[in-house]
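Long-time lurker. I teach an intro course on protein structure, and each term I like to show students one example going from raw sequence to a predicted 3D structure in token notation. This year I'd like something fresh instead of my usual example. Would anyone be willing to generate the tokens for the chain below so I can use it in lecture? Attribution to the forum is fine with me.
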Amino acid sequence: MGLCDRVTFMKISGFTIARNAIKYNYPIIESICSILPICDEFIVNVGDSEDDTLKLIQSISDKKIRIIQNKWDFSQGKEVLSYQTNLALKECAGDWAFYLQSDEVIHEKDLPKLESVMRKYSADLTVDALRFQWLHFYGSYYRYRIDSGWYQKQNRIVRNNGQVESYGDAFGFKRVDEKPLNWKNTNCLLYHYGWVHPEEIMAQRRFNAEKIGFVSLTDEQRMEQRYSYGDLNRFPAYFGAHPKLMRNRIKEHRLSQTDLNDVRKRYWWHPLRALGVRYKTGKRLKKVL
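-- Reply from a regular --
Happy to contribute to a lecture. Here you go:
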């Protein structure tokens, strides 16, 4: 069954929040467009930005897009993110609500499978959410993190019945009645690009993260104008394909292109490099220096 052969009783809403997407280099357009083909509508909650984020979202030429606007209250700390996420969720009319943060992208080859999984569990109202495996790219589009502190699984598609909500820093979802969330695996990857930026932009994003309440920086870190990713060889290499929507960003990312040459030389023998398989190793690194 193709993407257009939709089951009439199942409707899919996409939703996200966006603020200062241009200033902090979020791939928000790529994120939204990555799942737009399987969505019946897409709600974008645009915050009061210091750049042209609103115009950027408005530039998406698709009638499925519906924009709401809100002012972010930073006195809420990092919970401002879940609060704004829930405002967007409340606007969704679909049976399923597919949430992506501004730096998360889905591979186009996974769309038919994701639609099939949603269709499979559509009538099973005991299923609250659908889970993804995370690929946290770091420093380079050819390195990812699996060490302690970097979560590897999370729910991004939720049942839109008023019983599920975002919480905390919008890290994930929970049931409003505090019962355990019943989730099923999609066995699909979610591509997280929140830590693949030019060093100077990454430094600005860290300052902003401290402002919201995500991290606490030292005086020395606050003085840094460029973030240092360190030796990227500490992390596993990724030989697989990225979503096509990310091609231009990857080509224009200086550190990634330098690292790609190193990966090709260091792993010339690796069978997965020749096959271009999309994958993530199951081995966890307990500590990375």
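Some talking points for your students: The longest strand covers residues 183-195. The CA atoms of residues 110 and 188 lie 7 Å apart.
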